[in-house]
Amino acid sequence: MPDKRMLIVPVELVKKIDDNRGDMSQGDFIDFLIDSQIKQEAKQQKETEYATKEEIRSFEQDIKNLLKNFLDFFVSYGLELGKQSPQTEFEELTNKLQGLEKDLAPESKEGRVKIKWK
C-alpha cells in the first residue's frame, strides 16, 4: 500500500474538486488534473519549437533594418567628426544604404515580430 499524506487545502477548493470529480476519488481526480496539465505543457512546447516562414522573413527584415540604422549612425557619426573620408568610400556606403532601403520597401508593419533577447 502506498504511503499516504495529508494535504490541507481551502474549503472552496475541496468543494470545486467534489463538484467536478464525478465517480473518481479526490486523489485520483487531482492526479488526473496534474497529468493532463503536464501533457498539455509538453504539447505546447513541441508546437512552438520551430519558427514559421513568416517569422523568419520578418526577422530578416528587422535585421536588415537594424543594419541600415547601424550604417546610418556610423556614416553620420563620421561626418560629424569632420573626418574627410574618400569620396569613393562615401559613395559605396550610400549605395549599400540605398540597396537596404530597396529591400525594406515592401515591408509591412503588420508582419513585424518583436524578439526578446535574454
Low-confidence stretches: none
Main sheet specs: none
**Percent in helix:** 55-70%
Count of the separate structural domains: 2
Strand proportion: under 5%
Query: Taking all residues together, what is the mean pLDDT?
Result: 78
Shape field: rod-shaped
Helix-strand blueprint:
Elements: H1 11-20, H2 26-47, H3 53-81, H4 87-104
Helix pairs in contact: 3-4
Q: What features would you describe in this structure?
A:
The chain is mostly helical and 118 residues long. It folds into two domains: 11-47; 53-104. Helix content is 67%, strand content 0%. It is built from four helices and no strands. The protein has helices at residues 11-20, 26-47, 53-81, 87-104. Helix 3 (53-81) runs antiparallel to helix 4. The longest helix is centred in the middle third of the chain and has 29 residues, at 53-81. The mean pLDDT is 78.
List keywords for this structure.
about 120 residues, mainly alpha, 2 domains
Please provide a brief summary of the model:
The protein is mainly α and about 120 residues long. It contains four helices and no strands.
